[in-house]
Amino acid sequence: MSVGRRVMGAAAGAAGLAAAGAAVRVAQRSRVIALRSAGDETPFGSLRSEPLHIVADDGTVLHAEVDEVAPKSERRRSLSNEPDLTVIFVHGYALNLDCWHFQRAGYRGQIRTVFYDQRSHGRSARSSQDNSTIEQLGLDLMRVIEQASPGPCVLVGHSMGGMSIISLAEQHPEVFGDKVVGVALISTTAGGLDPGRILFPMLPLGMGGKAMGRAVRTLDRGHRVVDLARRWGHSVADVMTDRYAFGDAVPGDYVDFVFDMLDATPFAVVADFYAAFASLDKFEHVGVLGKVPTAIICGTADKITSVNHSRKLHSRIPGSSLLECQGAGHMVILERHEDVNAEVDDLISLATAALEAM
After folding, report:
1. Is 103 helix (H, G, I), strand (E, B) or coil?
2. Percent of the chain with pLDDT over 70
3. Cβ–Cβ under 8 Å, residues 56 and 62
4. What is the pLDDT of residues 227-241, one digit of tens each?
5. In Å, how far from its chain's centre is CA 280?
6. Are strands 153-158 and 180-186 parallel, antiparallel or unpaired?
C-alpha cells in the first residue's frame, strides 16, 4: 500500500483531520517539539551544513543543505518510533535559506531537515529569465524532493516558497498523500496578488504605484544603477524593510537581517520574477493539498500577502488549519517564530501519527 493511501486511512481524510480536534493536539505535544528559544543567541546566517548540489531539469544548480537527525542521546525527546521523515523548507522572494533561522535552530538534530536556495537566490546559480517562473520553481522543488528526501516529506513554504508548493501541486498532484505527507503555507497566496506591494522594500526610495510594471522593466535595463541606489539609500530602505516586513516592533537586528538578504539579491533577479507574480492564478489547483494535513499561517498585519489571501487558501483546502498571528507582518517566520514553530510541530505530529499508524 502506498504511503498516500496509508496516510489517508490513518487520518480518515480531510474531514477526519478537522474533526480530530483537541484530542489530537494533546497527543501532538508529546512528539517532535522544536527547541524553544533556539536561535536567540546564534548569529543570523551562521547555521550551516555540508552543501548538496541539486541539478534542476534545465541544468541550473541549486544549493541545498541537509541537517541530519542527531544521535538519540543528544535529542531533547525520544523519537525512537518516528518514521524516516524529512521536512523541506522553501524560502521566499529575494530571500535565501538563512531566513529560516529560528526554524532551523529549533529543529536542528530533532528531525531531518532540508533547506535550499531557490534559483537565482542565495548560493544557487542564476537562472535564465525565461525560466524565472513559478512553474519552474515547482519543478525545482520536485527535484529537491527526489534528490534530498529518501522517505516521506513535509513541505514548509514562505511567500514565494508557498507558491512553489502550489505549483508543485498543479504539476505533480500525485505526490500529495504519497511522497508528500504534510504542507505548511506561510504568508503566501495562489493568485490575486498586487506584485507592486512585493517590490516596495526592494526599490530605491520605496518607489511604487500603478506604473510599477513599466518602472520595473525600465529599471531592469539599468539594474546596476538600481543596485547602487539601493546601497546609497540604505537608511530609507531599512525603514521600508521594517515597515513592509514586520507588523509589530522587532529587534533592530531582525530588520538588518532581512534588509541584508533583500540587498544581496540583484535587482535583475527581482525584475526577472516580477511577471510571475503579476500573472499568478492557481487557486483551482490547491484542493489537492486537502489530501494531507495542511497548515496555513499568516500575520494579520501582512502588507505584502494580506491575511485575506490565507483565508481564501483555507477556504479552498479541505481540512486545513489556519493560524492568524495578530499584529504580525510578512516575515512572521522571524517575528512570531515560536508560534510558527509550534504550528509546524502540530503539522509534523499529524504527519508522523499517520505514518506510525501504517
Report:
1. helix
2. 75
3. yes
4. 444 554 454 456 567
5. 17
6. parallel
How far apart (Å, rounded) are the C-alpha atoms in residues 185 and 297?
Answer: 6
**Measured between alpha carbons, how far is 135 from 280 in angstroms, rounded to an integer?**
10
Which residue reads 496516510 in cell numbers? Answer: 7
DSSP state of 177: T
Residue among 110, 104, 99, 48 nearest 75 (CA)? 110
pLDDT at site 287: 97
The answer on pLDDT for 89 being more than 60 is: yes
Residue 156: closest CA among 302, 346, 283, 27:
346
- The model's pLDDT over 127-170, given as tens digits with 9 standing for 90+, comes to 999 999 999 999 999 999 999 999 999 999 999 999 999 999 99
Q: What is the largest CA-CA distance in the chain?
A: 59
Sheet holding 112-116, edge to edge: 51-55, 61-67, 112-116, 86-90, 153-158, 180-186, 294-299, 321-325
Mean pLDDT of 290-303: 96
What is d(CA 296, CA 146) in angstroms, rounded to the nearest whole number? 24
Predicted TM-score (pTM) of the model is: 0.85
The C-alpha cell of 52 is what? 548538496
201, 228, 237 from 207: Cα distances, Å: 9, 15, 10
Q: Is the pLDDT of residue 19 over 70?
A: no
Contacts of 154 (CB under 8 A, 6+ apart): 85, 86, 87, 88, 180, 181, 182, 183, 184, 347, 348, 351
66 burial level (CB within 10 Å; 0-12, 13-18, 19+):
middle
Q: Is 68 helix (H, G, I), strand (E, B) or coil?
A: coil
> For 315, how many CA atoms within 13 A lie in the half-sphere containing its CB?
8
For the cut 80, the answer to whether the pLDDT of residue 224 exceeds it is no
What is the pLDDT averaged over residues 112-117? 98
